[in-house]
UniProtKB/TrEMBL annotation:
SUPFAM superfamilies: Protein kinase-like (PK-like)
InterPro entries in the record: Kinase-like_dom_sf, LRR_receptor-like_kinase, Prot_kinase_dom
Lineage: Eukaryota, Viridiplantae, Streptophyta, Embryophyta, Tracheophyta
Membrane-spanning segments: none
Protein's UniProt name: Protein kinase domain-containing protein
Species whose genome carries this gene: Brassica cretica
Amino acid sequence: MLNSLTDPLVWDFELFKVIDPSRSNGSLSSVAGTIGYIPPAYTMRVTMAGNVYSFGVILLELLIGRPAVNEGRELAKWVQSHSSQQEQPNNILDLRVSKTSTVATKQMLSALSIAHACINISPGERPKMNTVLRTLTRI
């Protein structure tokens, strides 16, 4: 999300989902948007870990230059498969940005590490958003 000065803001991604107002437990009546942002083992419940996963997907889109779903393949799953194959992380970065300088590549790799933590399969292993924000601010 951008403010009026086009400064980026960390935003609650769950606000883009339609919540059933008759329920107080945060259950969803439907989901709006692309399937690529929804975490694995999604249970129709709004969770902080789900927000973190969605944010990680958005960060991946920025770093890799691909949409959340491309040709039927989810970006998060694609990144996870490349990680498990021991591929060099800088090989998946958007070359239009990463090839501009070694500093840009280093910063992108740091952000990629954060994004990878955000899309962890296990919700309990995902970082808290305040940790993500602090880490991104230090890059």
